[in-house]
Amino acid sequence: MEILTADFFLRALTGGLLIGLTAPLIGIFLVLRRLSMIGDTLAHVTIAGVALGFLIEVYPIGVGLLFAVVASFAIEKLRKAYKGYAELSIAIIMSGGVALASLFFTLGMGYNTDVNSYLFGSIYTLDQVDLYVVGAVTVIVIITIFLLFKEYFLLTFEEDAAAVSGLPVKVLNMLLTILTALVISTAIKIVGALLVSALLTIPAATSLLIARSFKQSVVFSVIISEIAVVVGLVIAGIWNLAPGATIVLFLIAMLILTIMGKRGLSA
Length: 267
Prior knowledge:
By secondary structure, this protein is mainly α. It contains 12 helices and no strands.
């Protein structure tokens, strides 16, 4: 139990709670707009940036964040080019991200072990700089969603009506994609690139089963995410398990229990 009071565990808990707040805030809009796969796409691009960061010996999360933001612009450009096939933009960017990551892996074989920590998560290795970056992204996401909540609500359910009412739809779409890129690029060291989309989608999927309004779904998704982070980290710390995987599996367990509970009530 001493691990629960160790400095590295407290840093991990702080970082996990911050991502547990921002990921579902963005994820609920992505899920409702059927853009869930954008999380995986930006995660793969971020890994390419992380790999390049190791190669040129520059802060990997910073380079990954830059890659993710550039990719978010590219996704929006491609979505406009393929209006009837918007999912193509996600597939194209994901392919490019995987290709770049593979190339950078080949060029710098000596750092593969470090990159693996970003693939599967390494929350216990968070340092003070990482927490500052995660904290800054958290502040940006919270302020943006708070100020533009009504606009994003209308955009999520009635994009055409939002455009007719005079809202800058293109700007709002771009901003949401950039926020997604920021959250994912800072979350991959916590849960890993292969699992990061789970924090975006599973809390939202669970909350939609029990919420009676959009605001409730937002609040419930954050609560579910934070519970999973705390419980997952404690379980992983006590039994020496992979923390990112434990958090995600606990999220899946919560989703399954919610589905079973709803079926039981409706039976």
